[in-house]
Amino acid sequence: MSSSSVYISLVNLRKQNKKAFAVLIDPDNTDTHQIIEIAQLCNDAKVDFVFVGGSLMLSNHLDECIKTFKSKSTIPVILFPGSPSQVSKEADALFYLSLISGRNPELLIGAHVVSAPMIKASGLEVISTGYMVVDGGKPTTVSYMSHSAPIPYDKDDIAVCTAIAGEFLGKNVLYMDAGSGAINPISEMMIQKVSSQISIPLIVGGGISTPEKAIANCKAGADIIVVGNAIEKDNHLIQALAEAIHSC
User: Fold this and answer.
1) How many other β-carbons are positioned within 10 Å of the β-carbon of residue 8?
2) What is the pLDDT of residue 168?
3) Alpha carbon distance 208, 227 (integer Å)
4) Residue 192 CB neighbours (<10 A)
5) Element of type H or E holding 180
């Protein structure tokens, strides 16, 4: 892949008003056999992207996880790192996450300074990403580890201003996340208001467990829908979700 091929594909989605589906794989919750099964299901469903990462990463088989998936699929793999240590040369690209919804300088720039030489040496395509955590109705690992409160579920104005600031700061994409297994997924109203005020790709995840919710988020303005936790419980949702998202 070229040095910017994944980012270009993200930008083209928004330009062409097309919607994409990303499956999130947490190596802590997935063994080799499961990854092979997920790869086949993703191929059959024509999933657009696979994100790999987790908040803590207790296991040490990140490279193996990605190698296994890529041995069975050509779908682009993008790292979704929960910490600077979650870097693998086996991936195609990396979301360089800055927690713009929080007020912890460590996750705005501190961890980035530490990880920058390693990431540069990896040769990975780096996609600067404004990461916005929205209250999903229960505490998340991200909020706990970052010592930062999420954007309140019903504060659309805060989300909009945060998103605009992220774009002004030069972020390539925005990622709005209600967290794994969110009780309250991000509202369509918040997605619509944010999407209408930015020109960069918008990724939305957290608590999306039905094709109907995925469609509603797409219609509200999300460019990429991410599902992880629901697929861990039932990976056969991949086909139904892909069909729903690609129909938008």
Assistant:
1) 12
2) 98
3) 6
4) 16
5) none
Q: Are 226 and 22 in contact (CB under 8 A)?
A: yes
Q: What is the mean pLDDT of residues 172-194?
A: 95
Tokens of 142: 């991200």
- Domain containing 66 equals 5-246
| Both tokens assigned to 23 | 């499956």
CATH number, domain of 160, equals 3.20.20.390
- For residue 38, give every residue at least 6 positions away whose Cβ sits within 8 Å of its Cβ, in sequence order, or none: 23, 25, 30, 69, 231, 235, 238
Q: What gap in Å lies between CA 4 and CA 232, rounded to an integer?
A: 30
Q: Tell me what pLDDT residue 1 has.
A: 35
Which two three-digit tokens encode residue 155? 């504060």
Q: Kindly state the tokens that stand for 176.
A: 């709005």
Distances (CA, A) of 159 to 130, 187, 214: 12, 11, 20
Residue type, 9: S
Query: How many residues in the chain?
Result: 248
Per the structure, the count of domains in the chain is: 1
Burial 175-191 (b: 16+ CB within 10 A, else e): bbbbbbbbebbbbbebb
- The average pLDDT across 21-39 equals 95
What are the tokens at 3?
Answer: 């040095």
Q: What pLDDT was estimated at residue 58? A: 60
Spell 68-89 as b/e; 16+ CB within 10 A means b. Answer: bbbeebebbbbbbbbbeebbbe
Cα 19 to Cα 129: distance, rounded to the nearest angstrom: 18
**pLDDT of 60 over the 80 cut:** no
